[in-house]
From TrEMBL:
The keyword Plastid does not apply. Its main location: nucleus. The keyword Iron-sulfur does not apply. One of its GO terms (cellular component) is small-subunit processome. Belongs to the UTP11 family. It is found in: Nucleus, Nucleolus. This is Probable U3 small nucleolar RNA-associated protein 11. InterPro entries: SSU_processome_Utp11.
Length: 138
């Protein structure tokens, strides 16, 4: 932006005289952005700052990317086979077009007798492993 002699240099706002020899020696604390946004008129101040072109381009690209993904997803939904089966369909139900997980019934839970049997099997397994370790050590 400037040459070594501190001559006039160009920037987005026009030409100005640089008081430093190079931009590298410019103090960081007092650095001011060279591109200032034009002020909004008083009657339009409630709308915020004016949008720069690069900001618009970012916003537009983001919008287009989201629009394209929605378009692809809707196309995929149109092309899907309605007779296709997934195991997740067994555990779900649809009401008014919305998918809900089925609640687990009490039939799937273990009874007290089953829990006692499971606990005794666990105790037997632990005793078996302890005996095996004793035999290995001796």
């Amino acid at each position: 932006m400037s040459d070594r002699a501190g001559k006039r240099v160009g920037c987005r706002l026009g030409r100005f005289r640089c008081q430093y020899l190079s931009f590298d020696s410019y103090p960081i604390r007092s650095a001011v952005t060279l591109t200032t946004r034009p002020p909004q008129t008083h009657s339009r101040k409630h709308l915020g700052e004016l949008e720069k072109k690069k900001d618009y381009k970012l916003r537009a690209r983001d919008f287009q990317r989201k629009r394209n993904t929605l378009k692809k997803l809707s196309q995929k939904a149109l092309e899907r086979n309605r007779d296709e089966f997934y195991f997740h369909m067994i555990n779900c139900k649809t009401e008014n077009g919305k998918v809900f997980e089925k609640s687990k019934s009490s039939k799937e839970e273990h009874t007290t007798e089953q829990m006692k049997l499971i606990n005794t099997q666990d105790e037997r397994y632990i005793n078996f492993k302890m005996n095996m370790q004793r035999l290995v050590r001796s």
